[in-house]
Specification:
heterotrimer; A mainly alpha; B mainly alpha; C alpha/beta; A: mainly alpha; 76% helix; C: Rossmann fold; Alpha-Beta Plaits; 2 domains; 10 helices; 31% strand
């Protein structure tokens, strides 16, 4: 068991090194994509700063809370996909029959598959998240430690959600669009204060679009210095992750490889 | 007369070739549905907490319709800079020059044809959603006419800046970065997320005179609050900005053409 | 020991037809009860027209797809339930898909594969250096794959699939797009490997030459069923002995008659001949052609495999079927 785990860590290391090397072949493009994402996130921060200059409190949230929210979700999203870049393109890989490329190797399919790609934009997200939190919120050391833990929780959440939404393609076939829209809704909701929503919308945030584990618990945990809220965030994230993995492996039994295309011709 | 007619024909063809865009309607419906729902909640809460009937001169319903129009404007933008950049780098531009068409006008009308189609489609989808969320606002025929008259200049202005960036391909290694920076500045200083009246007081005059607000904020504000004086002012801003940028485009294009004829493209 | 044993392997797909509300689904049988055994160390060519069920069969053998019914044992493993265990001993090359990282030199992919297959570093180095030498990779080992010629890329590709000393190698169209020399080089390498290391080779190809020079045994499959299963020697004698010659002349020869060749097409200046090389070899026919007039151009090609298969198919009920 330990040896297996060690071997997978080594594999992860090897893929990350190779992924970086591949990106460094075009370091200009890597850097500009990274900066582009950083800039994109910053625009939203500027919007919120303008907003809070005019309206200092929004349902108990102040500008620092929203900056924290953006920092946690951007860093978490980035960490989920920076080295697991294929999680985002899972639906496409399934419908185009490209899982074959990984099925020929003696490794557990899902971790191996996810490892296959390092993406530049996500490093921009990570950079943004951490620098926004450190430079604008000025946390104490313990706050920062909690923040790091929370970004990991949110990373698990997004990774799990990407696997879950991508696995939908096993059932829906050519439905990349549906997966993308679902993920888009998740990402959008996870960048607005959860306190804006009540009633049914609130229910949605912990079920169909589980953004609440990113937009509510982490911010609340940092606000109240509460490990309980932090653990809620991690537990929710793990639940989504497990659901995603289960969906993936159940769906895999229906996998039809690339043959369908061949047969149509 | 025929000389002008052919450009309108170019626009018509561009519009027809983009009819496939209709298939994206379902995607747009979800996208705008999510975004506008969040904006609705954000402003409902903000209006409620401030106990205000109007914010920045807009009622809640007007605010949501304003945001619907700004989203429709921003989302309808075709990738002009990328296309021009490609034409320059692949040498397709030299081929275009052999035709009896003035390249900048050819691009402009292709752009307008495509953009109007996308814009009205987005506006139609957005209107349905806004109507469901907050109902109609006080539409008047003459008000809508003012809005419609302000849109072509707004799009032309936006096109000109993008075209200028695309021409940068003659001198720069990469124009994607500049395009992105411009589009993000347009989002924030154009007033896509928040009307300019809610910006800090000291910033407002500058933002209003910058060309970005003439593209987004100007038409959208006319849509929800038609006003002849404001229309006249917007027209003045649009034409003066267009004059400056138009001269820049003319000058840069001439310089670039000299390069093409000297270096052979 | 048998490397591959298949018993009544069958795969059906549901294909959706139409669009919108009028959708219906139809069942398509891709592989229709294939049974065969391949002894360890044999080299087998697996051929058939597009859509015959070749790749579906290979995908089931490699554990990528699950069959609808039937059973298979590959190197003693059930491919779809013991995919990982099988993969340690199996190498796969898809000519149309690369396992090399496009922007990186082959060396980096080799390093990565060493981790994927959990090779001990010392063993890996010995093995890698041996492959570099045998496949003559040293001149481009540190060049990004995107800058390699197709021939170089395929050599690296096959070397990569042999790093972990597989006992069985699946080669799916390995020579596709290669020029004549690169193609022959690659065939020789595969043969050599099959002979020296006793690797079982399972090859699919559209190229009759690949099959002739690499395989001992040919399995022809069509409509999901085995149409012919025999040795390459027999196949060559029965079906692969024909060659097509296209000859163009500067002048107008009086006749195109050549002993042992059949005229298929002709114009004033050129003709297309078919010859049976078992009766009249190329070396005998070509000098005769030279006598006819001033030759401008000659091309010699194998008849397309599709024609050969069609031929086999039409004579399926004749007593030529063996094994």
């Amino acid at each position: 068991m330990y040896k297996k785990l060690q071997s997978y860590f080594r594999l992860a290391g090897a893929y990350t090194v190779v992924g970086f090397k591949a990106n460094l072949e075009y370091r200009g493009a890597f850097l500009s994509q990274m900066i582009a994402m950083f800039l994109n996130d910053s625009v939203w921060l500027v919007f919120w700063i303008i907003f809070f200059t005019r309206f200092p409190i929004l349902k108990g949230w102040n500008v620092n809370d929203v900056i924290t929210l953006w920092a946690v979700s951007a860093a978490g999203f980035g960490m989920a996909h920076a080295c697991f870049g294929n999680a985002i393109s899972l639906a496409g890989l399934i419908t185009r029959g490209q899982l074959d490329n990984w099925l020929i190797y003696p490794r557990a399919l899902l971790p191996h598959l996810l490892l296959g790609k390092v993406t530049a934009t996500e490093w921009g997200d990570i950079l943004f998240g951490y620098s926004a939190y450190l430079l604008l919120v000025h946390p104490s050391l313990s706050d920062f430690a909690l923040f790091v833990f929370l970004t990991f929780a949110v990373a698990v959440l997004f990774l799990g959600f990407s696997i879950l939404s991508g696995s939908l393609a096993f059932w829906l076939g050519n439905a990349e669009n549906v997966c993308d829209q679902w993920r888009f809704a998740m990402i959008t909701f996870s960048t607005y204060p959860a306190s804006l929503f009540d009633g049914q919308a609130k229910l949605f945030l912990y079920t169909i679009i589980p953004a609440g584990f990113c937009s509510y618990f982490p911010v609340q945990a940092l606000k109240e210095n509460s490990l309980l809220y932090a653990s809620y965030s991690m537990l929710g994230a793990l639940a989504v992750f497990v659901l995603g993995v289960v969906a993936f492996y159940i769906g895999l039994r229906r996998y039809e490889s690339g043959n369908m295309l061949e047969m149509r011709s | 007369m025929n000389a002008i007619k052919k450009y309108f024909f170019v626009a018509w063809i561009a519009m027809r070739s983009n009819l496939a865009y209709f298939s994206e309607v379902s995607g747009r419906l979800i996208f705008l549905g999510v975004v506008l729902f969040i904006f609705l909640r954000l402003w409902q809460v903000t209006f409620g907490e401030n106990g205000a009937k109007t914010l920045g001169g807009l009622t809640l319903a007007q605010m949501l319709w304003y945001l619907t129009v700004t989203e429709a404007i921003i989302l309808s933008s075709p990738p002009v800079a990328r296309l021009v950049d490609q034409d320059v780098r692949t040498g397709a531009l030299s081929v275009q020059l052999t035709r009896p068409l003035y390249y900048p006008f050819f691009c402009l009308f292709t752009n307008l044809g495509e953009r109007f189609l996308r814009f009205f489609l987005n506006l139609a989808v957005g209107s349905v959603i806004a109507y469901i969320f907050v109902g109609p606002i006080n539409f008047r025929a003459d008000g809508l006419a003012l809005f419609l008259l302000s849109v072509p200049l707004a799009f032309t202005l936006d096109f000109s800046v993008n075209f200028l960036i695309g021409l940068g391909a003659f001198w720069l290694e990469d124009t994607a970065g500049l395009t992105l920076i411009y589009s993000r500045i347009l989002m924030i200083f154009g007033g896509m997320l928040i009307p300019i009246e809610l910006f800090p007081e000291w910033l407002q005059p500058a933002v209003k005179w910058l060309p970005f607000s003439s593209v987004v904020y100007g038409p959208a504000h006319l849509f929800v609050k038609p006003d002849l004086a404001e229309f006249a002012l917007l027209l003045l801003r649009q034409t003066s900005a267009l004059l400056v940028i138009g001269i820049a485009v003319y000058w840069v294009f001439q310089t670039a053409m000299r390069r093409v004829f000297v270096n052979g493209g | 020991m048998n490397a591959v044993e298949l018993d009544q392997l069958k795969k059906t797909f549901q294909v959706k037809q139409g669009s919108g509300f009028k959708r219906s689904s139809k069942e398509i049988v891709a592989v229709d009860g294939i049974s065969l055994t391949v002894p360890a160390g044999q080299s087998v060519a697996f051929i058939g027209p597009n859509g015959a069920g070749k790749s579906t069969t290979i995908k089931m053998l490699t554990g990528i797809l699950r069959p609808s019914s039937g059973s298979a044992s590959v190197l003693g493993f059930n491919p779809w339930d013991q995919r990982s265990k099988l993969a340690f001993q199996m190498g796969v090359v898809f000519g149309q898909r690369s396992q090399l990282w496009y922007h990186l030199p082959p060396r980096d992919t080799f390093e990565l594969l060493a981790k994927v297959y959990e090779l001990p570093p010392a063993d890996y180095k010995i093995r890698r250096d041996m492959l570099i030498e045998r496949f003559k990779l040293s001149s481009f080992l540190n060049t990004p794959v995107r800058k390699l010629s197709l021939g170089q890329r395929m050599r690296a590709e096959i070397a990569a699939s042999l790093l972990h000393k597989p006992k069985l190698v699946f080669l799916d169209e390995p020579t596709i797009g290669l020029d004549v020399i690169a193609r022959q080089e690659l065939r020789d390498l595969i043969c050599e490997w099959n002979r020296d290391e006793g690797v079982t080779v399972f090859l699919t190809s559209h190229d009759a030459g690949d099959i002739e020079s690499v395989a001992e045994r040919v399995i022809v499959i069509n409509h999901g069923q085995v149409v012919l299963d025999g040795s390459v020697g027999e196949m060559r004698r029965d079906y692969l002995s024909a060659k097509l010659l296209t000859v163009a002349f500067h002048d107008r020869p009086a006749s195109f008659d050549v002993n042992g060749a059949k005229i298929i097409e002709r114009t004033d200046h050129s003709c297309k001949l078919e010859l049976d090389t078992s009766v009249s070899p190329v070396s005998v026919v070509v000098p005769q052609i030279m006598q006819l007039g001033e030759v401008a151009d000659i091309t010699i090609e194998d008849p397309p495999l599709e024609d050969v298969i069609a031929h086999i198919y039409s004579s399926k009920h004749s007593p030529q079927q063996r094994y």
